[in-house]
Structures are given as structure tokens and as C-alpha cells.
Amino acid sequence: xxxxxxxxxxxxxxxxxxxxxxxxxxxxxxxxxxxxxxxxxxxxxxxxxxxxxxxxxxxxxxxxxxxxxxxxxxxxxxxxxxxxxxxxxxxxxxxxxxxxxxxxxxxxxxxxxxxxxxxxxxxxx
Amino acid sequence: xxxxxxxxxxxxxxxxxxxxxxxxxxxxxxxxxxxxxxxxxxxxxxxxxxxxxxxxxxxxxxxxxxxxxxxxxxxxxxxxxxxxxxxxxxxxxxxxxxxxxxxxxxxxxxxxxxxxxxxxxxxxxxxxxxxxxxxxxxxxxxxxxxxxxxxxxxxxxxxxxxxxxxxxxxxxxxxxxxxxxxxxxxxxxxxxxxxxxxxxxxxxxxxxxxxxxxxxxxxxxxxxxxxxxxxxxxxxxxxxxxxxxxxxxxxxxxxxxxxxxxxxxxxxxxxxxxxxxxxxxxxxxxxxxxxxxxxxxxxxxxxxxxxxxxxxxxxxxxxxxxxxxxxxxxxxxxxxxxxxxxxxxxxxxxxxxxxxxxxxxxxxxxxxxxxxxxxxxxxxxxxxxxxxx
Lengths: 125, 389
Hints:
Radius of gyration of chain A: 13 Å
Number of helices of chain B: 10
Number of strands of chain A: 9
Strand content of chain B: 25-35%
Oligomer: heterodimer
Structural class of chain A: alpha+beta
Distance between the termini of chain B: 31 Å
Radius of gyration of chain B: 21 Å
CATH class of the largest domain in chain B: Alpha Beta
CATH architecture of chain A: Beta Barrel
CATH superfamily of the largest domain in chain B: Probable tRNA modification gtpase trme, domain 1
Order of helices and strands of chain B: HEEHEEHEEEHEEHHEEEHEHHHEEEEEE
Strand order of the largest sheet of chain A: 1-2-3-9-8-5
Strand content of chain A: 35-45%
Largest sheet of chain A: 6 strands, antiparallel
């Protein structure tokens, strides 16, 4: 059963096998509103935890997306190029951004688990 | 509109429709000293497309409304603006600008000539929310011989879209307005205004707006605003629309946003607003910066406000550097975003006049990358104003 970890900036990373699937949470997409473009990193790029790794453009504004953990990009979600609205419709599923090969899995210990993240979102509302 | 924020530390104000926005589930955010609805659960793109297809209701009560009254009010206001104010007949309105002594734009505004009262000329002014305190102080100081009555107890609604006229006619009929009133509304052309007294409800309705669509702006007492707004929202064609879609609609319509596309560093000539300065004013002057503006007209402006259609899907934002194909900087983007009606990003900004030709390729620098775009004429979507029967 894959485990999902969350950042305070509303990115998630779901660890499946040896890769981490990165995207933004439902709360994040609801705050951003209609997503019209996603700028994704290049496959092969080495990301460090907390560094800007993607940019989400909503109708109103551009928002930086930080890497929840360090690793190199092994795949990007090309479906977002044609249909960025998938991020709004299915952020945790088909609306994922990219996959990384984790370079330091212990970094995940510093992130929130599902329960902690849901409490965190409640505290914001 | 302006995005100038209220002084830090002061609580943002509420419009008379605040509770209605919250009840409708709007996402509220500070804007120009007010808490305003940015979007409703419908979402910006759907709100935008709905306004173009049917009708949208906007709360624009944050804007400043005032009546300027006294002998020769129109002639006197012309000393602050380059527009044809004296030529206004009662019930006509015009777009113009308040200018500083260099001909730069202090604010843009709508001026409506109301019916005279007791032989006194009366002008209804609607100015940007973020500038209203400064504008009204400026007008009061420069025209001390006139009375300026700020309409602090008034709300302002905008009903915009191809179904706006039908919806408003239906509402007036439901309010038992006489047929003559209903007919009068139907035939009001773009940029005209009438006062409607329905007994318990008094409406100042102009055929105008900020979307490029047919539509109306309705000034009424704050206490009556929620009920009237709810009646309009009960009509099947009408959805509430937030400031997010208001911005994307006006950008597609090629309309300037104060504080972004025009401000105290721009003049009406380079901003492409010369259409609002009639020949009489160009020849006789008598407004702030008339000499500078006369020179700009004679020589042509050094830079021009133009529109951009981006080739790709990534939007460019305000502040982006604009580069010519050879790489040199030729200007700056002042508005940029996704155009829901076109399904692609657009923008507007200023470029050196030598590089302002329609069709010219440019690059809009975004996060260090050149986004290819072409200079295009505006509006991006055709205006659908009602010009009369």
C-alpha cells in the first residue's frame, strides 16, 4: 500500500515502488482555481527538497511548486500539456506532475502523513 | 479598477453585498481596501464564459460614486479631464481621465450628465476603488466652487452579457414598472444613463460595463442592494461573477486596468485612448498636460499600448520584459493571462513605437524563457455593445 506524504505548501509525494509521485493536493487546486498551464521539470533533472520544481499557472497567477523530497526526475505527466484541467479534476490521481527517484528516503520523515495533513488543512479554514 | 490596497493596519471594508457573497460561497480576498469576491464555486473560466454566453452579475460597489454639482459643472470638470464633458446631454455618459500637469493619468472614470436640478448642472462620476479618496480630494480641491457629494450609501451592480437586457426588462416588469419605463430601458444605447423610480426602488441604470458585452451598471441605495441582487440572481440566465473573471473579461475586451495598463507614468496618447479626446479639446486644450499631449499627438508617442497573442499555452504575466526578434528589450507587459474565450494566453503592454506594428513577432520573457507572441489589434473578442434601435 503506497504511503502519501504532504508538505505545508500542499504538495504531495506518494511512494510507489522506488519512485515518488509528486503533485498538488485537492486543497491546493481548489485554492488555485482553474489551472491553465503546468510547467514541468525536464526528465533527468536533479531536484533538491524544497526547491522550485514546477510552476502552476491558474487564470489569475503563477504559483511555484517545490519538490517535497530530493531526487532525479524519471517521468513527467505529459497529459498535463494538453489538458492542464486534470489538475483540478483529479489532483491526487491523473493530475500528478512528475515522478522522482528518491535520493534520501529519510527526508519523507519530516513530512506530514494523511491525518496530520487533514488536520493542518482544517486549521487553515 | 485598481488594486491599490488600503493603508496597512486598517480593516478592509465590506460592500453592501458582502453577506450575499459569503452565502454564495465566494472566495473573498482583499482588493483596493475592500474584501471582494474573487470567484464563486463556479470558477473563473466558467464565470467568464457564462458572462459571454448569458448574463453575469458583478458587485462593483467598491468603486467610488459621487455627484458633482453647480453652475457650469461640465465646463469646470473639463479643466481636469481631456474629454468632451460640455458636449454631454442629460442622460449621456463618457469615458475620460483625470490628468496630472504632465498629462499623465491620475485615474480613469465615467462621467454621466444627469438631468439639471433647479437649473444646476449635475455630473455623476464613477471612479476606481483604489483611487477614490485621492480622486475626490483632487476634484474637491481643484473645483472648490462646485459641490461634490460622495455617494457613500450607494451600491453599484453590473449586469453584463447578451441576456442582460432581457433579464433586466423582466425584473422591471416584475417590479410593476410601467411599459414606458420598460421600453425606455430596452432602447437605451451604449453609454447612456437613466434614472428609474419604481416607487420603493430607485435605480440609476447606465448601459455600460467593463466586459465588452452589452450590459448595464446599476447604482442603488445600499439598503436595497441585496434584495435586488438576489432577484437578478434568481433569473435563470444570471450567475454571480467575481473579480477574477472581471479581469479576464476586460483584458479580452482590450480595456485598461488602472494601476496596471495606465497610471501616473502613462498618458492617454501612448495608452491608445486618444479616441476619448475630441478635436475641440485637442485644439483648445485647457486641461492638465494639454501641451505635452499636443506634442505627443503631433509627433506620435514614443511607445504604444498593444495587444499580444501568445503562440503557446504558457501565459506571460504583468511585468514580463518584451523582446524583439533580435533580442533587445522593446517594452514591458502590463497585463497578461489566460483568455477563456480564446482558450489561449493573451496580454497587453507597451512597446517602442518603432516595434508596434500589428503582426510583429515578439518574445515575452517569462521565468527566463522567451514565450513567442505576435502583436495583434484589440479587442481580442469583438465588442457587443448595443448602439440603439
